Amino acid sequence: MSTALEAFIEYITVVKGLSKKSIEAYSGDLLDFESFLKKDVINAKLDDILSYLEKYTNQNSINRKLSAINTFFKFCEKENFIDDRPILKQFKRQRNLPILLEYEDIMQGLKLIKKKSWIDYRDYAYILFLYATGVRVSESIEIRKDDINGEWLKIRSAKGDKQRMVPIAKFVLKVLNEYLDKREKKSEYIWLNYKGDKMSRITAFKITKKYLNVSPHVLRHSFATSLVLGGADLRVVQELLGHSTILTTQIYTHIQQKNLEQTVMEFHPLSKEAI
Q: By residue range, what is the domain housing residue 74?
């Protein structure tokens, strides 16, 4: 191991106080790079880095290696071990379209709930509640009875301590009231576990996984997608989801574009013409 590499590892261990896992990741990547170079890693040039990265095809792997190399050379420049550092930008991560469920899929999953106990009524109401409001799991488990006023839900535990109001469909309110009437435990919180305590994120995940085979967050995506495909303004969807920036909400425009493309390809007569 070169002297500069030893100094860097000591820096991230003692000064930066990184976790053992992070230190091992940095050390492993940089030692691998030095082994490839067959020379002191501090003498690496831009062409050396490019040659090293050629053996990797996965973008995540390349970005991880680059992160370690760039952080190391930034440290060396700061400590005056070198005058200029080689810089390579990481790949921009492609944002995958969110997984979502169609309305019919959700309703089909709800048919699996037999409604024999108040827990069954809870599961049924909770799934519909997530799909109808688009709330985050962390927000849903904090909701109290007085957060629902008529057909409006006040979300007060949103990110950044911001509050927002979301309307609730009458049908969902009816199902929610059925659950509350059947509930055997008393609490200010809406969603409870079988002991009567506030429901946890793990329980929320188990509910949606059991009947829909997805995480609760998928229902948030499904809520937003249903609105966008139905013609809702993106700014309105942003407000309902509680996104701090419209950039986060814009991923749903890709879903809209994909839907438009599928519609044209399926129904326009020219799409069926042979070239």
A: 3-78
